[in-house]
Amino acid sequence: MAVTKEDAWGVQARSQTTGSTHDENELRVAGFWVFLATDMILFACLFATYIVLRGNTDGGPGPRQLFDVTGFTEETFILLTSSFTCGLATHVMHEGRRRALVLWLSVTALLGLLFVGLEVSEFVRDVSVSATISRSGFLSGFFTLVGTHGCHVSLGILWMGSILFQVMRQGITPAIARKLTIVGLYWHFLDVVWVFLFTVVYLMGVM
Amino acid sequence: MSSHAATHGGHQESGNGHGGGFTPVERRFPWLHVVGYVLSLLLTVLAFLAVLHHWLSGNPLVTVIMVLAVLQIVVQLFFFMHFTEGHGPKYHILALGFALFFTVAFVGGSIWIMSFGDTQAY
Amino acid sequence: MLPHYWPTLVTGDPLIYGADASIGLVSIAIVFVLTYYKKWGWLWREWLTTVDHKKIGILYLIAALLMLFRGGVDALLMRTQLSRPNLHFLAADHYDQIFTTHGTIMILFVAMPLIFAMFNIVVPLQIGARDVAYPYLNAISFWMFFFGALLLNISFVIGGSPDAGWVSYAPLTENQFDHGPGENFYIMALQITGIGSMATGINFIITILRMRAPGMTLMRMPLFTWSALAASIVVIYAFPALTVALGLLLIDRVAGAHFFSMDHGGNPMMYANLFWIWGHPEVYIVILPAFGVLNEVFPAFSGKRIFGYSTMVASFMAITILSFLLWAHHFFTMGAGPGVNAFFALASMAIGIPTGVKVFNWMFTMYRGRVRMPMPMRWAVGFIPNFVVGGATGVMLATAPGDYQYHNSYFLIAHFHQVLIGGTIYGMFAGMYFWWPKMFGFLLEERIGRLAFWLWNVGFYVTFFPQYLLGLMGMTRRIYTYPAGMGWSSLNLLSTVGAVIMGLGFLFIVWNILYSVMHRSELRDVTGDPWNARSLEWSLPSPAPHYNFAVIPTITRRDEWWEIKKYGRTEDYRPQPGEIQDIHMPNNSGRPFLFSVAFFVVGLGFVFEWYAVVILGFAGVLAIMLHRSQEVDDGHQIPADEIRHEEIALGRL
Ligand code: HEM
Ligand SMILES: [Cu+2]
Q1: How remote is the C-alpha of C551 from its chain's centroid?
Q2: A37 and B66 in contact by Cβ < 8 A?
Q3: What's the mean pLDDT in C424-437?
Q4: With an 8 Å Cβ cutoff, are B80 and A87 in contact?
């Protein structure tokens, strides 16, 4: 017979004595993990390209001239904090606390916006000293790798916005719990990618 | 035929009643998240200081900050993404394990292959 | 505002105007027929919005056959041009465009949809599921593939086709050397289908891992399903590399970046590196399902179970992983040094081992079996010598020092056609003949089929064996003509004759299909199990009802259906009226189609660098995604009564 229980992913799951059971929501979370694996390979290829092209500055500005230590440190702490608040959002979602959920989700999205804003201003500053994407192989790799991450974050913000809207309209339903779980995984994943950007691009750039 | 699964998904139990079917868990303090957050800050600060204060240099430094970055993955996976939790078969661990393996293969392989000649061989 | 490519849109070339006119006429004819017979609604309801895996599989199959025709015409044009020395049937730039679209279409828009057709048609039925894990996403995958293919195909008539080979190597494809929309068409077409392929990969991994009928453990799974799992795994880890390679190339072309340029610190070989990180696994993506088909066909027509089931599984998994560690064998001549070349040469040879194991297992499956030779088995048996030669020449190519001689010669061309046609296409044709009754409820006629097979098989050897020799005699690939007196002329002529015979073979397959459609009442499969085969899909009527299984069976062993038949229990295997319950099915949706149209618009925008169109397209994509996210879609229930009626009508209750 079917037993309903809730698992740690906040998804209603059904276990049955006869195998072959899958809850639609849980199935989608599983698929999203696989998607994250593909996204990881995408970033792997971008990292590989960046590393291969890193020394090719063609006489133009290199990492040492461009990277601003306070800037990327701020970005790092902002993103780490947003990963935490995103975790809190899923936590309060499990507890069924809608208002706290709206709060933490908004904080996460705002921190994300701040992050994207800082990144954009960094890019603008670089471009203003003629460090553009077409200046050198190094800069092509840099803008594309960091920019792809930034685009992912921006998409995540839009996605959270859409979910916020749904939470306010429908409250916490199993479907919304699933969507939140997924966007949460996505967000933490982007945090991990950033940690590598921070390490490989920025820290190794200025060391 | 002895038994069967009657529905396409588990909709009858959980899917149909949107708005219904969600059972909140008991309230508790999010210790796991707080510990995870503190750890992630700590790891970042360590990497940061190691580089800016030149605790090491060259390859040893690279190794140390890469190890710190890998620990960050562990923190995110276990404290925030609840990587090993959840019921059902844990195929996602396999999926990410493969992804990690191929990431290393593609990045390492590319660096190895492309290190021929000088950095600029043309 | 006219695009700055305007001059290339109006080429004044009669070939292109001819194509323009004929495409226009065919489109008008299609619109007319649909309108005249009032079929628009039917088309939309039954096909464009479907999320049924069986119908999506059929769509893939039709698209693949159409694309095979287009790619085949390209091939015949090339062979005509090369039939004699110093011919001027095609100009050099046309020849370049044609070999580029030929290769791209054959791999991305023939081989890929063929394997996805088989996945869709077979996998859910083999594992006892009612659909794939994400039916809606499945429809998106198909339409992304479809519009990607469309984008590449319209390039010939508007703006010019890509002309830098199916690998599209930089720096040749950098803007300064290859200005114009052609390469952009290539990039965007592949990006769009690539998204679809990745989605299919995820979909089938989850379907196979999570949707199996109760009792069907991994080691009870039919081997075709195993091959689908293996290929899907390769898809999801390989395609992102293609996305990156093409994405960076696009950025170089439209934003003036220097990833792969010759100057300003770009590195052209990095393109080759990224391309083959995808490219080598890709060739395994298209061969693994062919292995899978053979694993079903040989036991079915030998009346024996597969020889060495677990070694087959192990070799699938070994190939899956190894296929990612070989990519540099495609550019040994770059000169990465002895360490790199030795590693990739050895790894390439190593993959011959699990592949060889399979060949032996198939032969041992036939050994002492009651071998029957209907059409599927013919293609399967034809596969073996082909693939053995292809594999052997592969190992020759993988010998790094040897490759300095063979590389980019006709020897290489012969190698990969041997494995792609003799391997993938033969395997997929075996699958098509095998599962055709399951798709449509009638068999393909044997006599014409046999003729088609022999034309194809003879034509194949006549086309490609001379090419090995030509390669050894120094003829390089991608030359549009050659002088007399090289000693190449007669072998080239022979190869062209072979190509014509293969072309005839293709026409016979088309005739085979049309003939069988017209005589379908005589060829009807009333048993649901016309081949006396082994796996679960044959326990269902042909074609399978839209809900697949009225009652999901419980699996107790490998080759369940075969065992059931052996013990004469097929009657009990039918659904009992009392067991039938409401069935939950996903809803159709027009959104996947519109979503892909929006991506097509994005693609067109990038091709001509009209950024307003790009933004418009992306706005469409986003709007459709938001619309979907706000929707509460739980599918629908088919009442138990309706299913009982349907099963009675099928004579199963
Ligand atoms: C025993 C297994 C195989 C080995 C050792 C092998 C080895 C190779 C090597 C070394 C090359 C590069 C040669 C050069 O560019 O000089 C090559 C090219 C190629 N192989 Fe294979 N191969 C094998 C099986 C396959 C299979 C199963 C397929 C596809 C179904 C395939 C498709 C191709 C294609 C398409 C190319 C040429 C790509 C291009 O340059 O346009 N190979 N193979
Ligand atoms: Cu290869």
Answers
A1: 32
A2: no
A3: 97
A4: yes
User: Could you give the percent of chain C with pLDDT greater than 90?
Assistant: 83
Q: Let me know: does C266 contact C330? Beta carbons within 8 Å.
A: no
CA–CA distances in Å: residue C88 to residues C78, C80, C81, C91, C274: 11, 10, 7, 6, 36
pLDDT single digits (tens) A4-30: 332 322 233 333 322 333 478 888 999
Q: Which CATH class is domain C267-526?
A: mainly alpha
How far apart (Å, rounded) are the C-alpha atoms in residues C232 and B91? 14
Delimit the domains of chain C by residue range. Answer: 267-526
Closest approach of A124 to chain C, Cα-based (Å) = 16
| Interval between CA C282 and ligand 2 midpoint (Å) | 9
Could you say which residues of chain B have pLDDT below 50? 1-20, 119-122
| C171 cis-preceded (ω within 30 degrees of 0) | yes
Tell me how far apart the alpha carbons of residues A122 and A70 are, in angstroms, rounded to a whole number. Answer: 11
Q: Does C325 score more than 80 pLDDT?
A: yes
Is the model's pLDDT at A180 over the cut of 50? yes
Min Cα distance A35 → chain C (Å) is 7
Report how far residue C238's alpha carbon sits from residue C236's, in angstroms, rounded to the nearest whole number: 6
Atom in ligand 1 nearest the alpha carbon of residue C165: 41
Residue of C114, C412, C472, C478 with the most ligand 1 atoms within 8 Å of its CB, for mutation: C412
Assign B17 to helix, strand or coil: coil
Around ligand 1, the residues with Cβ closer than 6 Å are: C 167, 283, 286-287, 329-330, 348, 351-352, 355, 391, 394-395, 397-398, 403, 406-407, 412, 415-416, 419-420, 423-424
Residue C442: helix, strand or coil by DSSP?
Answer: strand
Contact at CB, B6 and C583, closer than 8 angstroms: yes
Determine which residue's CA is closest to atom 37 belonging to ligand 1.
C416
Helix, strand or coil, per DSSP, at residue C155: coil
CB contact under 8 Å between A25 and B14, yes or no, is: yes
String of b and e for C473-504 (b: at least 16 CB within 10 Å)?
A: eebebeebebeeeeebbebbbbbbbbbbbbbb
Domains of chain A, first to last: 68-201 (1.20.120.80)
Flag whether pLDDT at A96 surpasses 70: yes
H helices of B16-118, in order, are: 31-52, 58-75, 91-114
Which chain B residues have a beta carbon less than 8 Å from that of C572? 1
Q: Span C383-411, mean pLDDT?
A: 95
Is the ipTM of this structure higher than 0.85? Answer: yes
pLDDT digits (tens, 9 = 90+) for C528-576: 999 999 999 999 999 999 999 999 999 999 999 999 999 988 887 888 8
**Distance separating alpha carbons of residues C261 and C174, to the nearest angstrom:** 7
pLDDT for position C14: 66
Position C367 scores a pLDDT of 93
pLDDT at C6: 47
Give the start-to-end residue ranges of the domains of chain B: 89-117
pTM of the model: 0.93
Query: What local confidence, expressed as pLDDT, does residue C41 receive?
Result: 86
